[in-house]
Amino acid sequence: MGDFGVPVVWVEDSDGDFCAGCSSPFSFTRGRHMCRMCGSGFCGKCSSSKRPVPWRGYAEPVRVCDMCVQAADRTKRLQRVRAALGNDSIDPEKHSHYFTDMTEVKRREQNANIMEALKRIYNAKIRPLEQAFKFAEFYNSDLSEGDFDARPMVLLVGQYSVGKTSFIRYLLERDFPGQRIGPEPTTDRFVAVMQGKSDRSVPGNAAAVDPRRPFSSLGRFGTAFLNRFEVSELKCPILDALYFVDTPGILSGEKQRLDRGYNFEEVVQWFAERADRIIVLFDAHKLDISDELKRTLQVLKSHEDKIRIILNKADLIDSQQLMRVYGALMWSLGKVVKSPEVIRVFLGSFWDQPLALTGKTNEKLFAAEKEDLISDLRGLPHNAALRRVNELVKRARLAKVHALLISHLRSSMPYLWGHEKKQKKLVGRLDQEYRKVSKLHDLAPGDFPSMDKFRAGLERFEISEFPSLSQRLVDVCDVALTRDVPNLILRIQGLEEKQEGQGQGSRLNPPTPKAPHEYSSPNPRPLDNMASPATNFFDGDVSPMKSASRQLTHDGDLEEEVATWNIQESTENPFSDGFEHDSGFEVGQDDWVVSVADKTKWTNSFYELGPSGHPPTVTGQQVRPIMVDSGLPTQALRKIWDLVDISGRGALDDEEFALAMYVISDAKVNGVESIPDELPRSFLPPSKR
């Protein structure tokens, strides 16, 4: 971890043949260098920096890749954001406080590192297969660096003057560049509202060629669209968590639709595929669904899980009218959206003005709906990492099937002449070729691309000009799908479990710790006298005084071995191997890594163990069951004990116990290699510095 806060995710890449930065193949002139921070292979151009990596065992500067350098800089920047948010001056009445909680910022920091690892896996093991067989050209789906780095997207769709721009301003709590609000059709372009260092508007043509932004593939819609697209940048806390895309109001006239100069439905589909949430707004006074809105909703049909409906300006009608309007809206949507699921509809008045007198009777309802909507948006960053992993897995499977299809068709081509005639014949019977490839390689029909898209792509290329398929490319792609990506998913799930534990106490409303006198007697834990079978954690005679007892489960059908431990008071490391281990200290950050919420939670657990003495401490045998429950190997637990027993008395006080729980939680998420050899200053409890 060291100076970089959250460790960069390690990716096993000993079998990589391509640079994880630029996807160039390694050769005699382009050597392979391993980044000592993330483990991936890079060419010299993409790994020109040197940094110390103390948590990997490199105290002196060693070669690291440009991606890790950028990740370290980003982490430091996010840490400064966290430091700025460390005070309690955030107004809980503002929407920004939902997105600027310290736990939320830390989660975004961790998700960003997951995305860096996903980017390295894609560049080194999936993208080379795509490039060899023109995957992006076939499906118009080029994946750029900005697609990995982008925050979750919220797409707003609706007819003109339903309050799309006002809704964005309502959440941002300030104006943004390019904002136009009025009763007439005002927003005549697509506007991406994103985080920036200063207030400015970036034209669409410039945004589409910027590799750091997720808009590089918008160029295929032509200049007519890019002239109607812009990026609005401003500084706002919410935009650190997600960004918004405002769309032109959907019109009802055919002439206005044709005069746009670009295909509106195709552009909306492009944004919908990449959006994490799609919000469709309706005005309580205009429930008619025009033909273009109907076509747009049909485009969104395959993304029903992302759609949320907002019935805006609901404060302008009374309760009786609101019920009628709500029923009419659901009836209208039922004719267009053919879904067995009920779409969530939020009611309210989402702008910065007070409620109208007519809607005062529904004030509590609107407040509850606002809370639900904010909570829904707040949850987007939590699921963004897993959603993008899921999208990459689908893309990798499609790329593999695409390569196998091209290879199969190429093997059917004649050697000398008649290529054009044979290609037309193969394209005409693609359904038969699909079945052959599916049977030959044991592939699921659902993994195959759309036959129309594949046929259209073949019309732009000659099959005989594709290279022969390298089995090595397919094998490396399979390694990414069967080893690297599952490891990332396990890491994401571990982070979610850790965050759920930390999220029980918000920094705005921390739970009150119990005082020692509130515990009349120690509250025994169910596993205080039990541990998992010895073979899980110990080898040989390392485990002390073990006796096995047979116990029947509650239904009497199964038996299980349970090792019971004879608890004895000891002043030694409960995981000691008989050797002494030195511990040292390193000057680092000044703030303690254990948060207030975690300290409170683990202080409660500490007093439940029944500490004794002055100051109150718990012995190694009292702590041992909790540490064994973590599932970490004995060697790692021994190392953790030596680190956290700062006083050297063979027992832990409440601060040392909280530090032990933090290190164990971190090791469960990031692996035992994340356990530091020496305690950085930021790990030292404040009273022991």
Automatic annotation (TrEMBL):
Signal peptide annotation: none
Name of this chain's protein: Calmodulin
The UniProt record lists the keyword Amino-acid biosynthesis: no
Domain (Dynamin-type G) ranges: 148-381
Organism ancestry: Eukaryota, Rhodophyta, Stylonematophyceae, Stylonematales, Stylonemataceae
InterPro entries referenced in this protein's UniProt entry, alphabetically: DUF5600 (IPR040990), Dynamin_N (IPR045063), EF-hand-dom_pair (IPR011992), EF_hand_dom (IPR002048), EH_dom (IPR000261), EHD_N (IPR031692), G_DYNAMIN_dom (IPR030381), P-loop_NTPase (IPR027417)
Organism of provenance: Rhodosorus marinus
GO CC entries: endosome membrane; plasma membrane
Keywords: Calcium, Cell membrane, Endosome, Membrane, Metal-binding, Nucleotide-binding, Zinc, Zinc-finger
Gene Ontology biological process terms in this record: endocytosis; endosomal transport
All copies of domain FYVE-type, residue ranges: 13-73
